[in-house]
Amino acid sequence: MPNIVKIGFVGTGGIAGAHIKRLVEIPEAKIVALCDIDEARVKAAADPLGAAAYTDSAKMLAEAKLDALYVCVPPHVHGDLEVRAAQKGIHLFVEKPVNLFMDDARKAWQEIKKNGVLTQSGYSLRYTAGGIQLKNFLADKQVATANVVRWSGLPGVPWWRRYDQAGGQLVEMTTHQVDLLRWVMGDVASVAASYSFNRVLKDEPNVTVPDSQAAILTFKSGAVATVNTSCALGKGWGGGTEFVIRDAKVVWKAEGCQLAPEEPKLLPPLPLETPSVDAAFVRAIANGIPSMLYSPYDDALKTAAVTLACNKSAENGGALVKLDDFLGEL
Ligand SMILES: NC(=O)c1ccc[n+]([C@@H]2O[C@H](COP(=O)([O-])OP(=O)(O)OC[C@H]3O[C@@H](n4cnc5c(N)ncnc54)[C@H](O)[C@@H]3O)[C@@H](O)[C@H]2O)c1
Predict the structure, then answer these.
(1) How many whole angstroms from 322 Cα to the centroid of ligand 1?
(2) Consecutive 10-residue runs of the chain (330 residues): their mean pLDDT?
C-alpha cells in the first residue's frame, strides 16, 4: 500500500483540470478538497472526485487536512496562499509564473525555506523526453547561443490580456522556453528587452499586454541568447527553440531533440520513461525523494525573475538589468 498524499487545489480552471486528469491516475495521490472563487466551477471539479468544495482558501486550509496544495490561480493572485500553506507545513505545487511581484515571491520563499516544505512548479518541459534528453546531451558541452521564437494568439481567459495581471506573454507563456534555456545554460547574468504595445492588437478589447517582445539574455557562462515572442498571430502557433554548439545545432522538441546540420538525426532515446511533473511531485512527497523535483520554487522564481527583469528593461527604454541585483537575496 503506497503512502497516500492528500491534495488540495486553489484555482480550478484550465490548468487545474490538466493536473487533476493526471493525478487521478497516480495511486499515491488523493484529491480531497478544491477551492475557487467561482462556486459553480469548483463544484463541477469537486463533485466527480467526491472532494470538498470551497470558495474561501483560508477556510479550506483550516479545515481540510492537506499534505499538498496545488496553486493554480492567475499570476497576480500568488503570494499569501503560498505563505499560509507553507506555515501549515503543506507541500506546494505552484503554477508558473510563481509570482509577478518579487517582494511577495521572496516572502513566500522565506516561509517555504523556514518550514522545509517540498516544492514543485509547472515548468513541465523539464519532464518531457526532449527536456531530459537535452539536459543530458548538453551536460558536457558548451552552448554558444540559443534562440527562442514563440508566436501565438491571445488565450481565452480575460486576465491574460492584462499586463498588470498576467505580466505579458514572455512572463506568462514564453517563460517555459526561458526556463528550458536556464535548465541547460545555467543562470542569467543580465537582460535587455524591447516591447511593442498597443500596435497591431489595438482593436482587441481590454488588451494591455505587449503584442510583440524581443529580449537578449546574457548568461553567467558568457553565452548569449535571444527570445522573440508575439501574441498577435491569432490562430495557430509558430516558432521553436534551438541551440548552437560547436559544429552543430540542437533543435528542441518535447518528444525528442534533433541534431543538425549533418544528416539530421534524433538524439539517442532515453532509457527510461520520464514521470510527469505531477507524478514526480506526488512521489517525491510519498517517498521522501526531493531529488525528483526538477523545478523547485526557488529555481522557478529565478526563471520568473529573468522575464520580469525583461519587463523592467523594456519599461526603461531597453536598459540593461542585472539579475543578481533584481533577484536579491533568496
Ligand atoms: N504549466 C503549464 O503548462 C500551464 C498551462 C496553462 C496555464 N498555466 C498557468 O496556470 C495558471 C492558471 O491558468 P489557467 O489557464 O488555469 O487560468 P484559469 O483562468 O482557467 O483558472 C484560474 C482559476 O483561478 C480562480 N481564482 C482566481 N483567483 C482566485 C482566488 N483568489 N482564490 C481561488 N481561486 C481563484 C479563477 O476563478 C479560475 O477558475 C496561470 O499562472 C498559467 O500560467 C500553466
Answers:
(1) 30
(2) 90 98 98 98 98 98 98 96 98 98 97 98 95 93 97 97 98 98 98 96 96 98 98 93 94 90 67 87 96 97 98 98 95
Going by their DSSP bridges, the two strands 210-219 and 224-230 should be labelled as antiparallel
- Global model pTM greater than 0.90: yes
Q: Identify the pLDDT of residue 273.
A: 77
Residue in 67, 120, 75, 77 with CA at minimum distance from that of residue 97 = 75
CATH topology for 125-269+304-327?
A: Dihydrodipicolinate Reductase; domain 2 (3.30.360)
User: What are the pocket residues of ligand 1 if the criterion is a CB atom closer than 6 Å to any ligand atom?
Assistant: 10-16, 35-38, 41, 57, 72-75, 77, 95-96, 122, 124, 157, 172
Where are the strands (E) in 128-236, listed by range? Answer: 145-151, 188-197, 210-219, 224-230
45 CA → ligand 1 middle, Å:
14
- The CATH classification of domain 5-124+276-295, taken from the options 3.40.50.1820, 3.40.50.720, 3.20.20.80, 2.40.50.140: 3.40.50.720
Question: Alpha-carbon dihedral of residues 57, 62, 66, 68, nearest 10 degrees?
Answer: 50
pLDDT for 71: 98
Probe ligand 1: pick from 9, 10, 15, max atoms within 8 Å of CB? 15
**Ligand 1 atom nearest residue 16's Cα:** 16
